[in-house]
Amino acid sequence: MVGGAELKWLMWISLYVIPLVFLPWAISHAWAHQHRRQLALKPQQLFQRGELGLPSLILASSVIWNLLQSQFTPHTVALGSVILGMSGTMAVTVWVETYCRQASGSDSRPERAWRDSRSLALLVFSMAAVMEILLDRFARVVGR
Amino acid sequence: MSSPAPALAKGQRQIAVVRLADASQAVAVLSLVFGLLLVFFPVWFPARIVSSWQRGQLMPVMMAFTLVLDTYLYLRVAYLQSAKPRPLAAVCLGSLPLLVIGGLSLLLQSAVRSILSAGLPNLQGRIGEEIVAQTYLALVCAVFFPFLVIRLLQQFKAANSV
Predict the structure, then answer these.
(1) Domain extents for chain B?
(2) A 65-94 residues with CB below 8 A of B?
(3) Is A1 part of any domain?
(4) Which of A119, B67, B77, B84 is geometrically suited to a Cys-Cys bond with B24, CB 3.0 to 4.6 A?
(5) Does the distance separating the beta carbons of B1 and A97 come in below 8 Å?
(6) What is residue A44's predicted lDDT score, i.e. its pLDDT?
(7) In the A/B pair of chains, how many CB contacts fall below 8 A?
(8) Structural domains of chain A, count
(9) Series of mean pLDDT values for 10-residue runs along chain A (144 residues)
(10) Which residue in A90, A127, A137 is closest to B129 by CB distance?
């Protein structure tokens, strides 16, 4: 059955999701309320330049660090690190590319940047969650 | 990296242009399903994976699954763009999932050998967890990697044609 230990990863992930995604959204709402401005503050407008790639890379780096500290074989550590690092880099590249397109005045489509960064961020977050579950399971096996 | 190259999209509208976001959604769903199975069936699901690997059934099943999933994703992208699939992409999708799973199968065998030679305590448990972890990583890699290669080839081709 599902216990507290199995859901520990959920709390761990929320430590990243809350300050990096929810907090900017909440602060922007507070700012608009304080200054009595009508702003478009949906997540797809707030993160329309692909900013979700930044927390994705931070999260990927954090999981890679945890993976390096684990007692998995070097094969698994290397494979997991490469895949996570690649996904995080791809996610942050959406933000960089959108910035470059806007700065150079070339074809810029915020809705596409939002969709791409959301998909890649979801990929990194789901991979991070599964890796944390696997790390948790492995730590318990080693500790027996 | 994840948005279509404008020159390619405008110049050759007949050919499907792949974005990494197309594959990443599918891999994210696959990851969530894998994670939920681990959380809700913490004994049964890993035991199934390990017993399949011991019987030699895991890798062929994974090869078939990733091949079907990659093909479905690519055809879906082509259908949504009302474009035709390109032969190079078909070759990538046909060969890369098999190569990735085959290569990572060798890596897993090497990892198991290194655990056995190290003589660590709780060998059975460690090997089981390694198999589950590498199975997950191989699934992700086999679905995502072919799309990454196709995307890079498209960028390379677009850069050369400019």
Answers:
(1) 19-156
(2) 72-76, 79-80, 83, 86-87, 90, 93-94
(3) no
(4) A119
(5) yes
(6) 79
(7) 125
(8) 1
(9) 64 76 85 84 82 89 94 94 93 89 80 88 92 92 82
(10) A137
